[in-house]
């Protein structure tokens, strides 16, 4: 018993299987992560090293080159690039595609340990981390308050906002830029230190020794055992000023006697402004594999709660990549829906039967919804590539159904009843439509085995198209025969005069096309040489024009953002850099009045340095 015969004899079983597929697909569609592009794993490891106060040239000689020499002989290394700046070194190690990054990271760590002795002892240990697209922020936020100065605002953000946004599901990292961080300054008087014959190290050791909380241990108190500790950390500046650092002839010497202690802020090496006003910027990174749209929605809900708890603080979203993702997915979704509707309209025009159109039209959403279930269980995301593959497959979904339905209709015209026509018509073409579908799927098989970033990008496209075609094949061999055996009728002219005229026009157009096609075939057969040479000429012309076509990895997209990176000569003060950037910002505001936000970040060690316009 073949599949169409079984489906017609067991319609309830077929219906239940169809409903299960629709239910799984609907649930999967709700839970599939949404992103702009498929998740791409770059075979790259990055190494970051910090050595405070060291010039770029010394940083390259003391840190960067020894690390490059250690990593160069690692298995699978394809390219090493490095950047040395004041106090920091960044090395990027690229491996061949297919390399296990976990094993590669372990190999780099072992080589780093063997070279540890050739690195400066007082530098911070180098850090190895994987390069991931999720390392780039998905949201930029700005925090402003008319009642707080930059120092108070920075402290408020770190104590009252940061932890609330970090606990949002899907948030991996939260970075704060701008404002002023609190710092206690101890300015020593060298003349007084020389007069007391006191080294600076003695004062440093005294401060470190006294500014600690130490555990005392257990003390028995009645029927209880109490854990005690000494609270030695300074609570305010006055306690630090009253610290005894030495004694001369029984007279204590306090820190305030030899130093000026101030409750101040750290040295300004970064200045952040939004729309010309000083502000604190927040960078939010999502976890690898997290849904960008859901993370963005969760952050916005938390921001609403922050506004309710702190009415005098405003947190504004200056950039949200989820907006672009929503717009892109919505455009692809609308294109797929419009394409499906146009396919149904064209079917109605050529078939001239509402029953036949309904039979084929039902196969489209069933195959599409079932494809969502396969995408979910395969770990895919709903992105522009996978959705584009689904839209591409929609046009091919109806091919199998049309072939099956046309053969069933032919048997009906020969006098067979509905059930017999459905069984024989679908059984006759089952092998043909299966072979046709498998040949189309075979076209995408090489894409599945592609290596490199292009393979990771288009692999989902190949899978989604293949999934949708296989689902359409099952629908054509099960649902279409079942529906045709019950609702398919021979077309007849409508009673309405207008509908009858449209019915006749719809029939005349295909007949006219068939006649012209027959004439063109006759002409081509009678002029074989002309047809062959014309095809060869077109092929040669296409080959000659192919090199003139531009080549790029991904098409250019307009995200509504413009980023500018301005670099001044080394050693330029951050105030000078910020003054130049503010002047550029004013020019942009005058020349581009439609800009929503202009964000400027000036200074060193900024991973997103420069100006941004949205």
Give a description of the structure.
With 614 residues, the chain is α+β, with helices and mostly antiparallel strands. It is 55% helix and 19% strand. It contains 18 helices and 19 strands. The strands form 6 sheets. Strands 14-13-18-19-17 form a 5-stranded antiparallel β-sheet, covered by helices on one side. Helix 12 (354-377) packs antiparallel against helix 13, helix 13 packs parallel to helix 15 and helix 14 (418-448) runs antiparallel to helix 15.
The overall strand count is: 19
Global morphology: elongated
What composes the largest sheet?
A: 5 strands, antiparallel
The largest beta-sheet arranges its strands as: 14-13-18-19-17
Distance between the termini: 63 Å
Average pLDDT confidence is 80
> Which strand-content bin applies to the residues?
15-25%
Give a quick rundown of the structure.
The chain is an alpha+beta fold.
Feature tags:
single chain, four-stranded antiparallel beta sheet
Task: Furnish the topology, listing elements before pairings.
Elements: H1 3-9, H2 11-31, E1 44-50, H3 56-72, E2 77-85, E3 88-95, H4 101-114, E4 127-130, E5 139-144, H5 150-166, E6 171-178, E7 182-188, H6 190-195, H7 200-210, E8 214-221, E9 224-230, H8 237-241, E10 244-248, E11 251-254, H9 255-258, E12 259-265, E13 270-274, E14 277-278, E15 280-286, H10 292-309, E16 314-320, H11 321-351, H12 354-377, H13 384-413, H14 418-448, H15 452-487, H16 497-526, H17 528-545, E17 562-564, H18 574-591, E18 598-603, E19 610-613
Antiparallel strand pairs: 1-3, 1-4, 2-3, 5-15, 5-16, 6-15, 7-12, 8-9, 10-11, 13-14, 13-18, 17-19, 18-19
Helix pairs in contact: 1-14, 1-15, 2-12, 11-12, 11-13, 12-13, 12-15, 13-14, 13-15, 14-15
């Amino acid at each position: 018993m073949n599949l169409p015969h079984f489906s017609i004899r067991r319609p309830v079983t077929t219906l239940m299987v169809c409903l299960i597929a629709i239910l799984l697909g609907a649930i999967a569609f709700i839970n599939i992560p949404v992103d702009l592009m498929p998740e791409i794993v770059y075979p790259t490891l990055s190494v970051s090293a910090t050595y405070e106060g060291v010039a770029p040239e010394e940083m390259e000689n003391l840190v960067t080159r020894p690390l490059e020499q250690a990593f160069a002989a690692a298995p699978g290394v394809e390219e090493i690039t490095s950047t040395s700046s004041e106090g920091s070194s960044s090395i990027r190690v690229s491996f061949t595609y297919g390399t296990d990054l976990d094993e590669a990271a372990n190999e780099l760590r072992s080589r780093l340990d063997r070279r540890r002795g050739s690195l400066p002892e007082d530098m911070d240990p180098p850090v190895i981390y994987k390069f991931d697209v999720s390392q780039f922020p998905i949201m930029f936020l700005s925090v402003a308050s008319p009642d707080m100065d930059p120092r108070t605002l920075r402290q408020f953000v770190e104590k009252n906002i940061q932890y609330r946004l970090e606990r949002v599901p899907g948030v991996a990292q939260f970075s704060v830029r701008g404002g002023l961080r609190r710092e206690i300054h101890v300015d020593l008087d060298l003349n007084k230190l020389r007069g007391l014959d006191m080294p600076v190290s003695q004062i440093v050791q005294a401060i470190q020794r006294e500014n600690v909380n130490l555990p005392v241990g257990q003390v028995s108190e009645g029927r209880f055992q109490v854990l005690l500790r000494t609270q030695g950390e300074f609570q305010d500046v006055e306690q630090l000023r009253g610290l005894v650092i030495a004694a001369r002839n029984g007279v204590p010497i306090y820190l305030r006697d030899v130093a000026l202690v101030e409750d101040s802020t750290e040295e300004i090496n970064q200045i952040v402004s939004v729309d010309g006003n000083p502000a604190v910027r927040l960078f939010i990174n999502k976890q690898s594999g997290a849904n960008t749209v859901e993370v963005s929605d969760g952050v916005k809900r938390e921001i609403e709660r922050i506004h309710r708890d702190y009415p005098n603080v405003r947190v504004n979203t200056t950039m949200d990549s989820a907006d672009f993702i929503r717009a892109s997915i919505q455009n692809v979704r609308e294109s797929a829906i419009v394409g499906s509707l146009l396919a149904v309209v064209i079917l109605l025009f050529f078939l001239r039967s509402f029953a036949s159109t309904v039979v084929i039209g039902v196969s489209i959403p069933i195959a599409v919804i079932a494809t969502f279930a396969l995408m979910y269980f395969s770990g895919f995301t709903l992105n522009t590539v996978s959705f584009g593959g689904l839209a591409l497959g929609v046009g091919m979904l109806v091919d199998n159904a049309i072939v099956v339905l046309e053969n069933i209709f032919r048997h009906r015209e020969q006098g067979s009843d509905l059930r017999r026509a459905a069984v024989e018509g679908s059984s006759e073409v089952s092998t043909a439509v299966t072979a046709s579908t498998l040949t189309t799927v075979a076209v995408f098989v090489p894409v599945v085995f592609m290596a490199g970033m292009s393979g990771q990008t288009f692999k989902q496209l190949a899978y989604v198209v293949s999934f949708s075609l296989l689902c359409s094949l099952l629908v054509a061999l099960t649902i279409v025969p079942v529906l045709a055996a019950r609702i398919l009728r021979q077309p007849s002219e409508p009673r309405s005069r207008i509908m009858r005229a449209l019915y006749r026009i719809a029939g005349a157009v295909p007949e006219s096309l068939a006649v012209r096609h027959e004439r063109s075939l006759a002409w081509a057969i009678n002029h074989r040489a002309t047809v062959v040479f014309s095809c060869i000429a077109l092929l040669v012309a296409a080959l000659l024009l192919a090199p003139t076509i531009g080549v790029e990895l991904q098409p250019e997209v307009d995200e509504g953002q413009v980023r500018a990176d301005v670099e001044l000569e080394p050693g330029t003060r951050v105030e000078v850099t910020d003054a130049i950037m503010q002047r550029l910002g004013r020019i942009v505001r005058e020349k581009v009045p439609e800009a929503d936000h202009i964000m400027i970040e000036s200074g060193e060690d900024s991973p997103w340095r420069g100006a941004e316009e949205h």
